[in-house]
Amino acid sequence: MAGVSFRERARYWFDNTMSRGTASLVGLLGVLSVGLVVAVAGLTLWLAPHEPEGVGGAGEVLWIALMHALTPGKVAGDKGSAAYMAVMFAGSLGGLFIVSMLVGLLSNGLKLKVDRLRRGRSRIVEKGHTVVLGWSDQVFTIVGELVKAHASQPGSVIAVLADRDKLDMEEEIREHVDLGRTRLVCRTGRPTEPRDLMLMNLQSARSVVVLSPDGEDPDAHVIKILLALAKRAGAHPPVVAAIAASGNIPAARLAGGSEVHVVDSDDTASRLIVQSSRQSGMSVVCMDLLNFDGGEIYLRSGADLVGRTYGEALHAYETAAVIGLRRRSGVVLNPSMDTVVSEHDQIIVIAHDDSHIRLATGEPVLAEEAVVSAPPTALQPERTLVLNWTAGPSTSSATSTATSPRARSWRSPPTIPEPARA
Questions:
Q1: Torsion sign (Cα): 299, 305, 306, 307
Q2: Close Cβ partners of 43 (under 8 Å, ≥ 6 residues apart)
């Protein structure tokens, strides 16, 4: 190339070599070491062919030159002519620079490797672990609930991938959550990058939880993660993702595919609030069913109950209560007693732990005298006071509540004609 000097070419080549990493630099120093040893041995054979005394050939001279290059202190014990001493001194001096650079490179390379391991960039080799993608204040609640759910499973692992420092994530989670026997593994990376998702060993994971981050437009970040999961090669376990705005649910389902279960967080929370406000104590029941402190809801295969009616299935489990069926058409709670369980159905049960769900050994004994019935009560008008205003995920839930048979009217908060019941 015209106008490029030899010095610029050499510097450009040296810069490229330096950018290749520690291994390339060590190789370059090895080449320089070989060149130095050969040069010192050649000068010795030329300028002092009979020194040192007792050396019989070129091989021994090469060995002496190598020892002087690796151990510069050996020059202090040399004896001979001025030419021999000058060559050995030059070889020892060159070896001193090369060995110093080699030690520095190895030390720096080891430090970089340790820092890389500290940041959490190694691939997880666990099996049956639960993967949490993303970071928000919800991570502490989710990890805490997973720890409770895994209490009966020794060796359970929770893996978290987020664009944060590995040690900071582990420290924050341990400050907020008592992990018990559950092991926590954190990795630093972007959940939206398929290359970083490879660190989590998703093929062997049990399930994946996608967190909705804090800040503006969190659904866009969740959809990007779902696209990255769909883009990566290989299958992945079932995925649960939270979407804040109901209008973004079709896009999330399109991005994630059939293996992704999308939860409309705001709409679900709104419905629970309405149910809890209309029935005293309902919030306690919902909390007990949705967390892992007391009874939890589980799905079990109905293979052992195929051909039996739902009424017979109610007493099929010894320490679990059947509340419905999950069919291909959807979830059916408390269907008619003559509904037949098919091979594709799943039984929905409430139990204190999944390890307690087992079939009963015999028929239950029913106490008919304990069964009571109450006459239906007449519907009465209700008043509901709504304080404050938010945009809401959609208008469907508000519309369905306003048109309910028991919702008679909505009044503005400023003027309340009489005390309202919440």
A1: negative
A2: 87
d(CA 298, CA 353): 9
Q: Closest Cα to residue 109, out of 23, 198, 3?
A: 23
- CATH code at 6-118: 1.10.287
Residue with tokens 């582990």: 170
Vertex 77 angle, CA 73 and 83, to 5°: 100
Tell me the pLDDT tens digit for each residue of 67-87.
877 777 776 667 777 887 888
Instruction: Work out the pLDDT band at 118, boundaries 50, 70, 90.
Output: low
Residue-wise pLDDT for 255-305, tens only, equals 888 778 888 888 888 888 888 888 888 888 888 888 777 778 888 888 888
The token pair that represents 62 in the structure block: 């090469």
User: How is domain 295-363 classified at the CATH fold level?
Assistant: Alpha-Beta Plaits (3.30.70)
Sign of the torsion angle spanned by Cα atoms 177, 181, 182, 187: positive
Q: Which residues pair with 186 in a beta bridge?
A: 160
User: How many CB atoms lie under 10 A from the CB of residue 337?
Assistant: 11
> For the segment 335-383, what is each residue's pLDDT rounded down to a tens digit?
999 999 988 899 999 888 777 788 887 777 778 888 888 888 888 888 8
Report the predicted TM-score, pTM, of the whole model to 2 decimal places. Answer: 0.62
What number does CATH give the domain 130-268?
3.40.50.720
CA distance 368 to 146: 40
What is the Cα gyration radius of the chain?
Answer: 36
